[in-house]
Amino acid sequence: MDKIVINGGRRLHGRVEISGSKNSALPVLAATLLTDETCRIGNVPRLKDIETVISLLEYLGKKVVWKGDAVTVSRKANLRPDAPYDLVRRMRASVLVMGPLLARLGSVKVSVPGGCAIGARPIDIHLEGFRKLGARIDIRGGYVILSAGTLEGGVVRLRFPSVGATENLMIAATCAGGNTVNENAAREAEIQDLAAYLNRMGADIKGAGTSKIRIGGNSGFRETEHVVIPDRIETGTFMIAAAMTGGKIRIEKSDPSHVASLIGKLKTAGVCIRVKGNTIHLDARKGLRTVDVKTSPYPGFPTDMQAQWMAFMCTLKGRSVVTETVFENRFLHVAELCRMGADIALKNNTALVYGGRRLSGAQVMASDLRASAALVLAGLVAEGRTEILRIYHLDRGYEHMEKKLRKLGADIRRIKE
Q1: Could you give the CA distance from residue 72 to residue 200 in angstroms, rounded to a whole number?
Q2: What mean pLDDT do residues 231-243 have?
Q3: What is the 3-state secondary structure (H, E, C) of the chain?
Q4: CA angle, residues 8, 12, 18, in degrees to nearest 5
Q5: So what's the pLDDT on residue 121?
Q6: Which domains does the chain have, with CATH numbers?
Q7: Which pLDDT score is estimated for 114?
Q8: Cβ neighbours, 10 Å, residue 291
Q9: Cβ proximity of 332 and 115 under 8 Å
Q10: Distance (Å, rounded) from C-alpha 29 to C-alpha 9?
Q11: Of these four, 169, 229, 329, 394, which has the most CB atoms within 10 Å of its CB?
Q12: Which positions are catalytic?
């Protein structure tokens, strides 16, 4: 099993290019199940989660060719109506095949995904939405079985703006009879990108990026090409990496509008940031200060940046407060940061960070994707050698992270064991 080894203490400098968004590529690839026509998706990052969804598409009857950053999906056989546990257990986002398979085939059987290190993350919001579109739902033997002669459009109000549920229902509603209105929908940039892709296929979707999305029913889709948006969480992670190390970097091929909340917090912390087109210039060589954050659905401060921000606050003198409102168990990285010398106190969904202590290199273990990124960032500034185990979590969401950091001047390498 691979591990990451870092010798800390180097300022980052230079330029880095951002990869395509994992959280956008996954639903876009799932949506290719809506048609037998060829779909070409560009700017797809080389990640474990992408490999998983491609394996699932191939199992379901698609031919998939992945060359460079381009994925071509075409028809190979008749679609299968089931997604087995062995594939779904690897990645929760596999449940995104529910929507297109139910729309195409009228029935689908998908393994219930297991729990997650950052919380239970149930799929009940997905199922409530499908029921409002006319689906019948049965859960038995660890599988969700959905059936519907024909989906019928209607008003679907989500009780929480779940990203996955918004995507699943938006995909399914493109094939429903009549019009669908999705209220209290998630507003993430990835939702907007999925809508753009579906509209290129021939769908009629308006309002993506707002809390009310209108979807017109459609009976056919055409051959489509689409380029996935840049990964805003990778963008944010490199921004914080530069800030933590007191560095000066240029982040290219990004979309600064997708990280506006983080840019605002970093500026408040004293980081000099200049945006020009799709490039972010960041200079953190002057004095910095602590800033409190509270996670919330987009466009608020992202829960996927909470762990990285906490690592940043550990390096600054003074107390800061980090409040998590999205997931109930997303502080597993705290124990590992404390192993490196951080002083963090937890109370319910709030972390009190007493910063300014010198972090020391240690052997630590990643518990989830964003926690692994936070430990990498801590290792960049820690005194001595840091070893990060279980980095398969990191490989789920960051494309060649250690190589990109090494080009920025970090002393970091991957060791295969």
Answers
A1: 16
A2: 98
A3: CCEEEEECCCCCEEEEECCECHHHHHHHHHHHHHCCCCEEEECCCCCHHHHHHHHHHHHHCEEEEEECCEEEEEECCCCCCEECHHHHCCCHHHHHHHHHHHHHHCEEEEECCCCECCECCCCHHHHHHHHHCCCEEEEECCEEEEECCCCECCEEECCCCCHHHHHHHHHHHCCCECEEEEECCCCCHHHHHHHHHHHHHCCEEECECECEEEEECCCCCCCEEEECCECHHHHHHHHHHHHHCCCEEEEECCCHHHHHHHHHHHHHCCCEEEEECCEEEEECCCCCCCCCEEECCCCCECHHHHHHHHHHHHCCCEEEEEECCCCCCCCCHHHHHHHCCCCEEEECCEEEEEECCCCECCEEECCCHHHHHHHHHHHHHCECEEEEECCHHHHCCCCCHHHHHHHCCCEEEEECC
A4: 115
A5: 53
A6: 3-18+230-415 (3.65.10.10), 22-227 (3.65.10.10)
A7: 56
A8: 20
A9: no
A10: 40
A11: 169
A12: 116
Distance CA 376, CA 397 (A): 13
pLDDT digit string, tens, across residues 105-115:
999 999 887 54
CA distance 30 to 116: 21
Burial readout 111-145 (b: 16 or more C-beta within 10 A, e: otherwise): bebeeeebeeeebebbbbbbebbbbeeeeeeebbb
Q: How confident is the model at residue 87 (pLDDT cuts 50, 70, 90)?
A: confident
Cα torsion 160, 165, 166, 170: sign: negative
